[in-house]
Design the sequence.
């Protein structure tokens, strides 16, 4: 059974930094492309960024987080991290870690974590 | 970026009825690379449909997707109590991947 478990959400002041973690099990992590998707309170879904498999390790990001957020992977712990710097109040929301499905060529999301809440407020 | 507009915003139906949800793209979605997700309160989204019309693993056949180009639909035949939720479409034919704003299917 595939499991995706996020952690690290917290209340943080504007301009601050936070690191989210996502532990993955039940699949071949080295082959996994992983994305972060967020959801502001009462709003819809928004793709944040992704990291491709171990061989590539390439990342790409939504424009609104470029230069502020960084995604990395730790193969020894089957974990993906989302480092968030220069946080803004509009970054508030639930952050989901998701697995990109091979049936969609890696562009849709078949396994999701339960989400972790990030609140940016003074 | 491609903007997806879902309609209606809310659909009020009774169990046993059918639901038809619309997702319209601001430009053509290449390869019919469109997915649908279901989200219940306090839960993560669940993948229902990919490639506009293919059901994901374990999804009941009362869920069906269709369409191409700029117009896509999700049909839920014979609504079950567990189907009342919010549904999102997502395109993955162009970067960045984008989602619609959602359609809520509520019990009438």
Sequence:
């Amino acid at each position: 059974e595939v499991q995706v478990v996020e952690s690290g959400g917290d209340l943080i002041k504007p301009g601050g930094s936070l690191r989210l973690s996502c532990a993955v099990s039940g699949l071949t992590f080295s082959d996994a492309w992983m994305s972060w998707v967020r959801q502001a309170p009462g709003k819809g879904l928004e793709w944040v960024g992704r990291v491709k498999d171990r061989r590539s390790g390439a990342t790409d990001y939504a424009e609104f987080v470029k230069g502020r957020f960084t995604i990395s992977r730790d193969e020894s712990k089957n974990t993906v991290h989302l480092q968030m710097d220069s946080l803004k109040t509009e970054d508030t929301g639930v952050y989901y870690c998701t697995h990109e499905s091979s049936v969609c060529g890696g562009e849709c999301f078949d396994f999701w974590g339960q989400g972790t809440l990030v609140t940016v407020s003074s | 970026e491609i903007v997806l507009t879902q309609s209606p915003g809310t659909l009020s139906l009774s169990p046993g009825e059918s639901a038809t949800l619309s997702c319209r793209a601001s430009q053509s979605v290449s390869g019919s690379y469109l997915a649908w997700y279901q989200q219940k309160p306090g839960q993560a989204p669940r993948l229902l449909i990919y490639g506009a019309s293919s059901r994901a693993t374990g999804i009941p056949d009362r869920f069906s997707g269709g369409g191409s180009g700029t117009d896509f639909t999700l049909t839920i035949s014979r609504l079950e109590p567990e189907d009342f939720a919010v549904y999102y479409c997502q395109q993955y034919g162009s970067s960045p991947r984008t989602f619609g704003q959602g359609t809520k299917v509520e019990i009438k």
Summary: The two ends of chain A are 40 Å apart (CA to CA).
